[in-house]
Amino acid sequence: MIEKNIHFEKNDSWKKIIGIYTILIIFCLITLYPLLNVLSVALRPGDQLFSTSLRIIPEDATLDNFRKAIFETDLLIWLKNSLIISTLTAIIGVFISITAGYAFSRFSFWGRKVGMMTFLVTQMFPAPMLLLPMFIILVRLKLMNSFLGLLIPYVAVSVPFSVWMLKGYFDTIPKSLEESAYIDGCKVWQVMYKIVLPVSTPALAITALFSFMTAWSEFVIARIILTSAEKLTLPVGLVNLQGSFSAEWGTYSAAALITSVPVVILFISLSRYLVGGLTVGGVKE
């Protein structure tokens, strides 16, 4: 009787595993379909753009659309601008978030709880709601059509989430590690540099990734602030590939795929920190 129960339990477990993997495969296919469709369009010759074939790789596949995207458009300029803005956003955002998150985690001061709640409340407002006051401020500061004018709102958008994440991570670090360093004569900045930051690598990696992606994929703010062709970022530049009466969809798709490459590389390189960085600090021990 016991052996039969074990046999039934094994069968149920296998059915459950098969069911879970089947659902995961279906959702993966649904998720990958748009990307594969873009790849298919990018590889098609111009006369087969609207082909009804379901083949992912067309029969007469060509890289001509990628050549046009790289050499006949300003894609490389847009790519350079996006890399500069996104990298600076990540560096500045992480630096501010480290100092603020550590202060909220380790020090008691007036307005500490109010400050954390303020960071949280700012995430509840939709971005379009902030466009008008942001536009007025940047015009008065004469920062329109400048990288600095774009960098300021990007950092402001990424910092609240980053502070919350790093604060939660710092809360999990035993204070005894820092107290030992203080006993050895270390200053606060030495404790942060030598003790706190080395053990906070997962959280720092995810914070940097979030800040980078926030700036890399943002369109609305960049569309309003940037007007010069040589200063456009990738999301705004890609829109310029669409003409008034037609669009080079093959070139557009190729450029979109090239745009995704840096983020994919960054995501893969930081993927080992992803789960740990997002979950640590979420449970009190």
From TrEMBL:
Domain ABC transmembrane type-1 span(s) in chain numbering: 79-270
GO biological process: maltodextrin transmembrane transport
Subcellular location: Cell membrane
Cellular component GO terms, alphabetical: plasma membrane
Membership in a protein family: Belongs to the binding-protein-dependent transport system permease family. MalFG subfamily.
UniProt membrane topology term: Multi-pass membrane protein
One Pfam family here: BPD_transp_1
Protein's UniProt name: ABC transmembrane type-1 domain-containing protein
Signal peptide interval: none
Ranges that cross the membrane: 20-43, 83-104, 116-141, 147-166, 203-229, 249-270
Source organism of this protein record: Cetobacterium somerae ATCC BAA-474
Molecular function, one GO term: ABC-type maltose transporter activity
Cross-referenced InterPro entries: BP-dep_ABC_trans_perm (IPR050901), MetI-like (IPR000515), MetI-like_sf (IPR035906)
Keywords: Cell membrane, Membrane, Sugar transport, Transmembrane, Transmembrane helix, Transport
Subcellular location, principal: membrane
